[in-house]
Automatic annotation (TrEMBL):
Superkingdom of the source species: Bacteria
GO molecular function, one term: methyltransferase activity
Limits of the Methyltransferase type domain: 41-136
Keyword flag Coiled coil: no
Database matches in InterPro entries: Methyltransf_12 (IPR013217), SAM-dependent_MTases_sf (IPR029063)
PANTHER family the record matches: METHYLTRANSFERASE, SAM-DEPENDENT METHYLTRANSFERASE
GO biological process: methylation
Protein name as it appears in the record: SAM-dependent methyltransferase
Length: 247
């Protein structure tokens, strides 16, 4: 099975697609205090859970969602239709780094997708070209809760400098020309909900679809669960930063 389809299935019961609860997602979007008629851009939008909630919270806003997963974009369109938001959301099947847009935007989101740009600093540099002066970025990024063990690094196929600790991550964002105006550090319960949902939803689907695809999905669920339980659990954190462009 293609990786994008596995990810789409695994996130069906948790379309936020990050270790963030509905309540904290809404709190982050509310703290953005967007102006009337705001323009929103979501780079790596997935099923557009963040964008759709932003549109509901800001009735005059419009948004662009960008992703390379046709499965996720189809789900986003279906959900936008269901919520009556289709006329305010444009979806683009294109790599996030290649999107040019029609900016400037009041808010640019990139939650859990900084890998599409090569890391946090590169992501914020790209976001800056889309933002209006003084505009906001909402960026979700991993960080080391504690120094990773050699076992954790091996499981993640990662290096110690792939992430910093939380202070270093905030400093990295601010050194890219932003000020931190709010943030949410994901709680253990949010991580557990996300991981058990990811692996459990994919496992259920695999059991309902016996055969090669089901076998591949079940193997992916077991691999992911093992990587979490025996690898990055309590070591990898996640912070969602609300940043204001200063330069």
């Amino acid at each position: 099975m293609e990786r994008q389809l596995i990810s789409h299935i695994a996130h069906q019961d948790h379309p936020i697609a990050s270790p963030v609860s509905d309540a904290h997602l809404e709190r982050l979007l509310t703290r953005a205090k967007l102006p009337a008629g705001a323009r929103i851009l979501d780079l790596g939008c997935g099923e557009a859970a963040w964008t759709l909630r932003a549109l509901e919270l800001h009735p005059g806003a419009t948004a662009d969602g960008v992703d390379i997963s046709s499965h996720a974009l189809a789900a986003a369109k279906k959900e936008a239709d269901r919520r009556g938001l289709s006329d305010r959301l444009s979806l683009h099947d294109i790599p996030a780094a290649d999107f040019t847009g029609t900016g400037p935007y009041d808010l640019v989101l990139c939650v859990g997708s900084t890998h599409a740009f090569g890391g946090l600093t590169q992501t914020l540099e790209d976001i800056s070209r889309h933002l209006r002066p003084g505009g906001l970025a909402l960026v979700g990024e991993g960080f080391w809760e504690r120094p990773p063990s050699p076992q954790t690094l091996a499981v993640l196929d990662a290096r110690p400098d792939d992430y910093g600790d939380l202070p270093a991550t905030v400093a990295q964002a601010e050194n890219a020309g932003y000020a931190t105006v709010y943030a949410h550090t994901s709680e253990p319960a949010e991580w557990h909900e996300y991981e058990w949902s990811w692996t459990g939803t994919l496992t259920n689907w695999a059991l309902d679809h016996p055969g090669p695809d089901g076998d591949a999905a079940l193997a992916a669920a077991h691999d992911h669960r093992d990587m979490w339980l025996n690898g990055y659990r309590d070591t990898l954190g996640f912070v969602t930063l609300l940043l204001r462009r200063t330069t």
